[in-house]
Queue: 2 jobs
Job 1
Amino acid sequence: MDGKIRMSLDEVRNLTESALVRLGLDERQVAAVAVTIVAGERDGCAAHGLYRLLVCARTVRAGKVTRDAQPVVRDVARALVRVDCGGGFAQIGFEAGAPVLAAKAREYGLAGLGINNCVHFSALWPEVEALARDGLVAFAFTPSHAWVAPAGGTTPIFGTNPIAFGWPRPGGDPFVFDLATSVTARGEIELHRREGQPIPLGWGLDPEGNPTTDAAQALAGAMLTFGGHKGSALAAMVELIAGPLIGDMTSVESLVADGGAGASPIGGELIIAIDPSGFLGSAAAQHLARGEQLFDGIAGQGARLPSERRYRARARSLVEGVEVPARLIAEIEALFDADAD
Ligand code: NDP
Ligand code: PYC
């Protein structure tokens, strides 16, 4: 088992920003990407925290990211906006497009943002949470690389294809869920492989199509969808609405474009925002308050709400900092060993 190092969130941010600067990303991308990596570490989502710097480095050094990409925002219809990320990380697309999306949702009740031509490695909850904090109901979807077999098959065709949802709550943190349509995110299996830990049966198949508890074998073979045919249908939906519908890649196409580099997925993301007052006008607050009865009914029987664990981790990290595997920090520092020569 690795030793752990305790770091403040400022230390996490400094390490992240300096690594991204040394990778040659411009100021805009450094800032936008660092926000999500620090948020991942802060909220106890290690698979999308500092570990991602290793993947970022591989992706940038493989020439898959435009280091000085500038997002181009295009107002394509009354309630639709597109952002071309110019081959940069998706975070700059969200940053540029979200204010336009929110304004359109307020004006028309419902609006969509298509983020195109981006490299995507981040979790989606920071985006739906931000929109929900702004009073909007939000959905986000993105394909990834073809790593996941459809229910009943053994050949990867889907990405891990997350679906995220955010709901504003009067006077409290938004209700948010963000789930891969695979049983678990690929990053979780990567972390198991790095720790030499077995994975639970049901997460993946080995390259011969047999169930496996070996993380490396599942990474080399096929991951499985959650909920069998139901997750499979949702994964297909994500492929369609965040791929062809917005003129961007499917997970199969992204993996072909990767060409064996082992870099982060390339493609697009779809975000939909709804302003509750679009349907409800001045009665919106009264009806949102009724949503609270649902949350009370869940929590009241001892079940937890999605995002509760993250908010608790956040509250703790803001005070105590976070614990990070010492080996991970050493690997991040070693990324730049040659620079010192
Ligand atoms: P999990 O299975 O850990 O969690 C999925 C959701 O379920 C979370 O909202 C979580 O809330 C909630 N949850 C978990 N356990 C419970 C419980 N017992 N009761 C109620 N709610 C619960 O996440 P995944 O492995 O599916 O995905 C992890 C991340 O990976 C996501 O953030 C996703 O965006 C990211 N990802 C990104 C991809 C990309 O291409 N960019 C691809 C695939 C995944 P909580 O957070 O509070 O635990
Ligand atoms: O963990 O499945 C994953 C993932 C893919 C892209 C970013 N994260």
Job 2
Amino acid sequence: MLQSQLFTKTKKEAPKGEEAVNAQLLIRAGFIDKLIAGVYTFLPLGMRVMKKIENIIREEMVNIGGQEILMPVLQPKLNWETTGRWGTYDALFRFTSHYSENEYALGPTHEEIISPLAKNFILSYKDLPVYVFQIQNKFRDEKRVKSGLLRGREFFMKDLYSFHADEKDLDEYYEKAKQAYFNVFNRAGIGDSTFLTFASGGSFSKYSHEFQTLSEAGEDKIYVCEKCRVAVNKEIIEEQSVCPECGNKNLKEEKGIEVGNIFKLKTKYSTPFNLKYKDEKGVEKEVVMGCYGIGLSRLMGSIVEVGHDEKGIIWPESVAPFKVHLICLGEKNKAKCDKLYKTLSTYGRSTEGRQKAGIEVLYDDRKEASAGEKFADADLIGIPYRLVISEKTGGKVEIKKRNEGKARLVDEGELLNLLIN
Ligand code: ATP
Ligand code: MG
């Protein structure tokens, strides 16, 4: 991608009233734009990151048997009345049609839609277990929205729902889902700072689990057991002030961002929607359910909260908008830069294979920008490898990693080796 053609430009200042580091950096660098508090546009750079996060999550969900669907955002009141949540779910956006008396909600979560939907297809024990998920915008009328992408009123979520014949089967799947969640956060580059956190299971289970990423920006207080690498949240510490795994009393208070949540719903939603199946003997039984959420936009914000310095964002390679930021200094070097851009972006591509990816390069070909501006933008945007061609680099290319201080000169062969391995 040529930077001169990019839809966005970087900004020196973040908008007034935007306090969160993730939003300040993402807005200044041109990943997102704020429409109103808690509502953001995802710009080309932001979409590239979001798609990578989405693909990681999708792969891990498919890997545990998830089948992707897309349910409506616009939902009738009746479904929410069936569970009694129309009046009690505070963050529910509700409104009335202008043409009729009909009332609707914008989906903040989809138990009210998936449970009656599943009734169409789950009839007998032979139809179980089954797992479906979606990746979609969710809407919540959140009271406080000062944390940028960490708490939106419109945000992206992956929600997976599992359906089982009995609790034992749910328990087994729950452990698989837990592992898939670890995989997601490891692959997204925040595995080291993300803790499995015991949370209340509501009236149906002893515990649920959150995945909490340690960060000063976190809105939640968690209590970490350094022996087991797990944590408990506030609800649990009030009930039992020890680690649920090893009984350790010395739990360390930290701030965390809840990037994911897994929950054994059991029959909480099957009961009101009368979701039942016939077992081997033809006896009707209630379907047992689990739900599993990850906030994709919150995850993107968390990655920035964990990975940045005073100059800008430091993306993990797996979710970076591009792998390489190629900076061309001086019009005289343009031909050399163009050639390297072509070599990298078509690397490994066969002549007819137009689909093959090559190396993803953002090429700063801007004529009007100074060297200083180009370097500052590269640090702000945070692409993992910065390459420079200038008067000084001669026949070589300067390479520097965003998270390292020193640059070095390499020839093209060495460069390709570094980027491919
Ligand atoms: P919180 O306690 O932070 O309000 P929650 O427990 O209500 O979140 P869930 O209903 O479990 O959240 O939603 C699943 C996931 O969706 C959360 O783990 C989080 O990653 C994400 N999420 C929830 N609310 C928001 C929001 N307002 N903005 C962005 N992501 C969110
Ligand atoms: Mg929560």
